[in-house]
Every structure is written in C-alpha cells, then in structure tokens.
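Hey, can you fold this?
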Amino acid sequence: MANNAHVRHSGDGEAFWMLNGLYEVKASSDETNGAMTVMEMTVPVGGGPPPHTHPGTESVYVIEGTLRYHRRTRVLLPYP
C-alpha cells in the first residue's frame, strides 16, 4: 500500500509548453520516490515528442484522438 497519496485535478500541477504541446505534471518522480512520473499531455495532430527511450517502463492512456506509438520495430495504433 502506498505511504503517500497525491490527488490532482485537471489544471492542477506544474504545466509547461514543449514540442508544440501542453505537458502537465500530475505526479512527479520526486513525489513517487522515483517509481513513476504521471503527465497529462495535450498535443496537436502530428505533434508529440520525437522517438526516445526511458530507463524504465512507460504507460500510455489515450483519452481522445489517436496515438501512433513506436515500440522497438513495431508501430502500435489504438483502435476504437
């Protein structure tokens, strides 16, 4: 069970513009003892970060729109 709980609502948390999109930190690595960073991202069509890697795992939850996600040699597309 978690020792600390963090609640953020839409518009809460540090926000910054990067790569033509709005990135809002909902839970930082510092707040989760390095376990994860949770971000809400609003990106325009065709936008988003360039191909990159992370040392840990990454989870993605798409609320609206379509995301093209590259994983090694595969391209993953969500379907309705």
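Oh, and this one too while you're at it.
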Amino acid sequence: MNNVRPRLEELLFGSVENMSVESVDVADAVVRVEARSTARRAACPGCGCWSSRIHGSYLRFPRDLPTSGKLVVMSLRVRRFVCAEGSCPRKTFAEQVPGLTRRFARRTERLRSTLVSVGLALAGRAGARMSDAFGIQVSRNTLLRLITSLTDPPTATPRVLGVDEYAQRKGRIYGTVLVDVETRRPVDLLPDREADTLAAWLSERPEIEIICRDRALFYAEGATRSAPQALQVADRWHLWHNLGEAAEKCVYRHRACLRPAPESPQEPDQVSESPASSPWPTGHRFAERTRAKHATVHALLAAGHSKRSIARQLGMGFSTVLRFSRATEPEQLFTGQWQSRLTKLDAFKPYFDQRWQEGCTNAWKLWEETKARGCPDGYGNVRAYVSRNLHGKPQPVGPGRHPSAPSPAGFSPTPTPWPRTTSSSSRPCWPTAPNWTPSPSMCAPSHTCSPSCKATTSGMDRSGNRRRPAQPPAIRPASGT
C-alpha cells in the first residue's frame, strides 16, 4: 500500500501540492477518495498574514471529474487556523488548497474549468446535454452562472472598429455596440447612441485607424470630433440595405408606369372539368385530399423516385402508391365506401324536396312528419341532409307557399293556394287543419262561413276554449289626489 499511495497522489493530484491520499473506495457508480492537506501554514484571506496555529478541522466533499464513467467524490479534510494578527476582523479561517478548492465551492477547480469550457462553447441547454453525456449532471442555469462569474478578458485597442446600434427595447431604448472588425469580437457596449458618448470612448483610443460605422448622423459627428485621423467607411450591409430601400421607393413612385403582364393564351386542348361531372365536387375534403396525393405521387414518379421510396417519404402503403400510380386521373380513384352508398333517407328524399318547395324549412318538423310515415333514421341525419342538400335551393315566394303538412295518407305534388284578400287591412282565411277550425273573425270579408263553423267557433279561441270578455282598463287616480 505504501508503494501504491505515491502513484495515486501523482495520478489524482499531480498538479496540486501538499496533498496526501488516505484511501480510495470504488463502488458501483461512485469513487470516493479520502485525502487531506499537508501544508504547515496558511494565509489569512482578510489580512494576508500567515498562521500555523490550528484551531480545528472538518470534512469537505467537493465533486471531481468523473473517471471511467463513475462519479468521483472527494472526502477532503481541511483545517481551520487562528489568525495571529490581532487587528484582523477574522479570528479563524479555513485553508484553501490552491488549484483544488475555493471558498464555498462544491466542485474542484478542474471540474469547474471543464464546465466553463463547455458553457463557453455550447452555452446553456446544449452545454447541459453535453455535460450529461460526460457523466456530469448540471443545469443550464449553472453553466450560465459560471460563465457570468468570469472576469472580462483584457482587450487590445482594435485597428478597425465597427460601430452600430442595438435595441435593448425595440422602439424605446437603444445602445451602441463596438466590434473589432478584424477579429469579429465585440469590444464594448455603450449605454446610448449619442455623439458625446461615442466621442468620449474614441478619445481614449487614438490607435484606431478605420471606423466602419452606421450612416447615422450622431455616429458621424462623434467619430469626426474625437477621431479625425480615422477613415470613416460604411459597412457592406448598410450599403445594400440603403440601396434596396432606394430602389423600392423609386419603383413605388413609378408604379403607374408598369404595364400589366399579358395573359397567356389558353390551349384549346386543355378543357377544365366541370365540378358536376366529377363524383366529388370541388371543395370536398376527400376529393381535395385525393387530388393532392395523386399529384404528389405522379410528381415524385416523374422525378425518378421508386414506388417504395415514395411510400417511405409520404408514409403510405406500397399498395396505395401502386393504386395512385396506375390512375391517370384522380377521378378514377373516386370509388369505394363514399360513393353510391344507400342510406335510410333515400326513400324520403323526394318528400323532403317537395316539403321544402312548399315552404317547410324546419328540420325537426320534417323529421316528425317522416317519422310518422315510418322513417327509421334519427333527427341528426335529417338535419344534416337538410343543411347540406336543401339549403340554398330556391323556394316559392308569395301566395304559393303552404307551410301546413299534408295528410299522412299521401302528399299532393301541388300545394293549396292561399285565398286572396281584397284590402290590406283584411286577413285571408287560413287553410283547414285536422284539429282546428278557423274563427269567423279571421276570415276575409268575402268569405262566408258555414253555420257549423259559426256555431263551433263563436266565442272560442284557437285552442277551443271559450274566450273571456275584454275588461275595461282600470282608471288610476291622478297624482296628488
């Protein structure tokens, strides 16, 4: 064991000084390493004074880089020293192992540097997925937090400076971004886009030779005032953008000079098929889907694809692709369960059409009438047939409409006409229904009711009940009496 320990210390902590490995425990998924620091003294982080007086010790468990696909957890024993400087606000402090630990850290320095490299290369979500593949489970927020904790690297004064604006809040708050054009890296961000702010930044850097800027006036003023030695040029993107805007404005001003394109003559052999000749009319969802699939399959066949390749690309069966490829026209595919299928309403469709022409447009009324005639279908199918097939058909207008239902024994093809009235104030006599007799008060002046009609309807309402005599309106006393 004494010969193995130096090798373990060299393997695990080759770049760390004053470290001693006590033991290594290898489990199924975790490798635990027990180690301790062998430094004789440590520097106080408050005053920098060195101290060798030990106050106590405790264990830290920082995570290290995984090895052989297993998680490595260290059990590191560190000591707490007593600060020898009496004026130092810190009475005790814990030692830190250089290159291995830092204050309040739960990861070793080499694991931290690895995660920082992954975060700088792949950022948050992609970096978290890559770290998980390495056996290091971290969140995207942890990677972003490690990146933001880094100090800004020192930047040299660029020779060619790019100046442009950026929006912190579009339409409201804008700033200025400064970029090194040669290295294509951002140099600095200015809080606004004023000429004084840019002039103050350029006055501290006289080494700039070329300024590639936006064509805004405030950038031109700031660059001319503080960097007269620099050559000001417009970048390529703004040149193309401004050229495009100028061309668009010119075309817009002369839009009246543009001539309409001549219509191409239609070839006589191309005859458009009328929707009525197709089994499925234009706009039907099954028809449009079948036509689109037929066009796609034949386009891929014309491009040189095989039928099995087309089946894989479109997610269709091979037999379906064969059926589409053999059909020269999409109308040849309009067969199957959606074509010429008998329904329970077929025997009653002529009756529906006749009642629609008579003026009955209530689907519930039509269903009740056909139900009395022995129709086995439900109200939903009747309503669907009326809304899909009858709506939009012309109806008779004027005295020819007859809303009453014919007798259940049969229906007449010609509706009963309304009686004509002699004046606008007189009302026509209503047609006779099975359970209701018209009142003489509702008949036209030219109509003569029979004695039985007058005897049965005098003093009766429509439901057959005796009408109550009209009461005179109550007289209310005047206010204040």
